From TrEMBL:
<feature type="domain" description="Inosine/uridine-preferring nucleoside hydrolase">
    <location>
        <begin position="4"/>
        <end position="299"/>
    </location>
</feature>
<dbReference type="GO" id="GO:0006152">
    <property type="term" value="P:purine nucleoside catabolic process"/>
</dbReference>
<dbReference type="InterPro" id="IPR036452">
    <property type="entry name" value="Ribo_hydro-like"/>
</dbReference>
<dbReference type="InterPro" id="IPR001910">
    <property type="entry name" value="Inosine/uridine_hydrolase_dom"/>
</dbReference>
<protein>
    <submittedName>
        <fullName>Nucleoside hydrolase</fullName>
    </submittedName>
</protein>
<dbReference type="GO" id="GO:0005829">
    <property type="term" value="C:cytosol"/>
</dbReference>
<dbReference type="InterPro" id="IPR023186">
    <property type="entry name" value="IUNH"/>
</dbReference>
<dbReference type="Pfam" id="PF01156">
    <property type="entry name" value="IU_nuc_hydro"/>
</dbReference>
<keyword id="KW-0378">Hydrolase</keyword>
<dbReference type="GO" id="GO:0008477">
    <property type="term" value="F:purine nucleosidase activity"/>
</dbReference>
<keyword id="KW-0326">Glycosidase</keyword>
């Protein structure tokens, strides 16, 4: 399968994304963690525990950036992802992280799979930015980067302007947006439109799959938070949708390739993704400076696909 490096701040929707990814037909050759939903160390703990549950204990996991490029990490979001990042459920303990940090793991994998390695990043983009700083060749070795992050045409969630993965570390995100690699942005524009609700949660918790049960239990807390946004118990599938777009399991039906940048100023727009979506509706002219594919519409509801896949896990 295609070699993939996955970068995450595990996280409830990161957990779903991870399980979806390891059960797809790509080859997950390494995982790095970053502070975001939870600190990078606990994110690695959660990732390793989930990999053990999915019977994939051999995928290397490296702890990555604990702080952002220009700011400290201010702590997790217990009201969204729990005090431990995974909705305060207990997971059986998995293996240990590898030596070296996530940026070094990414760089070494890029040389092991030159021109082939794909990156899927669903947390703050700090590890990717550090890797770009450490190795000037990196971008040219990577086949494609797919991120969950940003908001091209809708409000942010961390602030009025910023989606969380971009807003936590706008300088890192800007480096990722400007590096000469093909980039696909799966932002709030589409992820908020793909949800699962109570019936799906019940199917997960009442299944025989330990992985599905774990996700079903985590969703309890995640649903509490989403009541504020949607007025009902459900959850947006941010990170899993980005994985599915990257693997081809979800198909984008509107995804113009446009110039895009990240606002790194200190005002209210800090962390905004500025995507140049000017053009006739559904008919975006080709531009020489365009290299960011902005996913604006996905063919069909993705929730059912995700549930089927989670239920098929160990
Ligand atoms: C993103 O922020 C995190 O809380 C989620 O895991 C997702 O990656 C959504 O804005
Ligand atoms: Ca995430």
């Amino acid at each position: 399968g295609r070699p993939v490096y996955f970068d995450c701040d595990t996280g409830i929707d990161d957990s779903m994304a991870l399980l979806l990814l390891v059960s797809s037909d790509v080859d997950v050759v390494g995982i790095g963690t970053v502070s975001g939903n939870i600190d990078a160390d606990q994110a690695a703990r959660n990732t390793l525990d989930l990999l053990a549950l999915a019977q994939q204990p051999d995928i290397p996991v490296a702890i990555g950036a604990r702080a952002f490029l220009t700011t400290q990490y201010a702590g997790g979001v217990p009201h969204i992802h729990g005090r431990n990042g995974v909705g305060d459920i207990d997971l059986p303990r998995g293996g240990e992280p590898v030596e070296g940090d996530a940026a070094d793991l990414l760089i070494s994998l890029a040389y092991e799979y030159p021109g082939e390695l794909e990156i899927i990043a669903v947390g703050p983009m700090t590890n990717l930015a550090i890797a770009l700083q450490r190795d000037a060749e990196l971008a040219s070795l990577i086949r494609r980067v797919t991120i969950m992050g940003g908001a091209a045409m809708v409000p942010g969630n961390l602030s009025a302007a910023a989606e969380a993965n971009i807003g936590h570390d706008p300088e890192a995100a800007q480096a990722v947006f400007h590096a000469p690699w093909p980039l696909t942005m799966v932002g709030l524009d589409v992820t908020l439109g793909h949800t699962i609700a109570l019936e799906e949660q019940w199917r997960l918790t009442s299944s025989d799959s330990l992985c599905a049960q774990a996700i079903g239990r985590m969703l309890e807390l995640y649903f509490d938070f989403h009541v504020e946004i949607f007025g009902e118990r459900c959850a947006a599938l941010h990170d899993p949708l980005a994985v599915a777009i990257a693997t081809g399991e979800a198909i984008a039906t509107l995804a113009p390739v446009v110039p895009a940048t990240v606002d790194t100023t200190d005002g209210p727009d800090r962390g905004r993704t500025v995507c140049d979506l000017r053009g006739r509706f559904r008919d975006y002219p080709e531009r020489p400076d365009a290299h960011c594919t902005v996913v604006l519409e996905v063919a069909k509801p993705f929730g059912p696909t995700l549930i089927t896949r989670l239920l098929a896990l160990p």
